[in-house]
Structure formats: C-alpha cells, structure tokens
C-alpha cells in the first residue's frame, strides 16, 4: 500500500516573498516533486528489504525440501531392508 503526503502552503509563501503566481506554482511543484522523490526512495528501500526476505525464505524452503527428500529416501530404504529381513526370517522369500 502506497501513501503519498505533501503539504502545500503556497499562499503563505506567496505573501511572504511577494512572488508572482507562476513562481508560487513552480515552488508548489518543486515541493511536490521533492515529496515524490522521497516516497520513491522509501519504496526502493522497502522493495530491497522485501527482496532480501524473499531470497531468504526461498533458500530456507530449498534446504527444507532437500532435507525432507533425504528423510523420505532414508525411510523408504529402511522399509525395504526391514521387510526383506522380515520375509527372509519368515521364509517367504
């Protein structure tokens, strides 16, 4: 969610400095552009933090998946060996 906030006190600026209306509008636009640049910098920082979080989560999921596969392969191997010994002991093989 993005929120942009900019305050404008153009009349006070115009009254204090006795600026022309065009100069007041230019000052307002400059203030708005500064606010937008600051918001973009904040968004870029948030995006970098989110990317770091996503990369960390991705690597954790990868290692967990590899660990799970190794556990399942180990369990399957143990089952085969156990059943083979069981059937040999019962003289079914």
UniProtKB/TrEMBL annotation:
Annotated TM spans: 61-83
Domain GOLD: residue ranges: 3-88
Broad class of the protein's primary localization: membrane
Pfam family, one: EMP24_GP25L
Subcellular location: Membrane
InterPro entries, per database record: Emp24-like (IPR015720), GOLD_dom (IPR009038)
GO (cellular component) term, any one: membrane
Record keywords: Developmental protein, Membrane, Signal, Transmembrane, Transmembrane helix
Membrane topology qualifier: Single-pass type I membrane protein
PANTHER family: TRANSMEMBRANE EMP24 DOMAIN-CONTAINING PROTEIN
Similarity annotation: Belongs to the EMP24/GP25L family.
Protein name: Integral membrane protein, Tmp21-I
The organism of origin for this protein: Culex quinquefasciatus
Lineage: Eukaryota, Metazoa, Ecdysozoa, Arthropoda, Hexapoda
